[in-house]
Design goal:
Blueprint lengths: L2 E3 L4 E3 L1 H5 L5 H11 L10 H17 L5 H18 L8 H8 L1
Antiparallel strand pairs: 1-2
Helix pairs in contact: 3-4
C-alpha cells in the first residue's frame, strides 16, 4: 500500500486514490496502519488465522494446494504467535516492519 505521510495528515497516495485499490479496506485500514492503531480490532487476527486454517485444511483434504493461502496462513500464525492474535488482522504488517528493521 502506498501512503503519503506528513505532519498534518495521512492519506493515500494520489495513485491509490485514483485507482481500483481505493476500496473500503484501504480507506479504513490505511490510516490505522500508519498510526499503528490496530489493537481494537474490527476483525481479530486470530479469527483470520482460524479461517485460513479451515480454507487450507479443506483444500488439502480435496487434494489441492492453495499456494498463496498457505503463505497467508503461515503469516497469520506467525503474527498470532508473536502476540498479535487479538489485534486487527491488518496488524500482520507489523511482522513485515519487524523483519525490515
Amino acid at each position: 500500500m502506498v501512503w503519503r505521510h506528513d505532519d498534518e495528515r495521512s492519506e493515500p497516495d494520489p495513485v491509490v486514490r485514483a485507482g481500483k485499490a481505493r476500496g473500503q479496506y484501504v480507506q479504513s485500514k490505511g490510516p490505522k496502519m500508519i498510526d499503528d492503531d490496530l489493537d481494537t480490532p474490527s476483525f481479530p487476527l486470530e479469527a483470520a488465522a482460524k479461517d485460513a486454517d479451515l480454507i487450507t485444511d479443506t483444500a488439502r483434504a480435496a487434494g489441492l494446494h492453495l499456494g498463496i493461502a498457505e503463505v497467508v496462513r503461515e503469516r497469520l500464525h506467525l503474527a498470532a504467535d508473536d502476540g498479535l492474535g487479538r489485534a486487527d488482522v491488518a496488524a500482520t504488517y507489523r511482522m513485515s516492519r519487524q523483519a525490515a528493521s
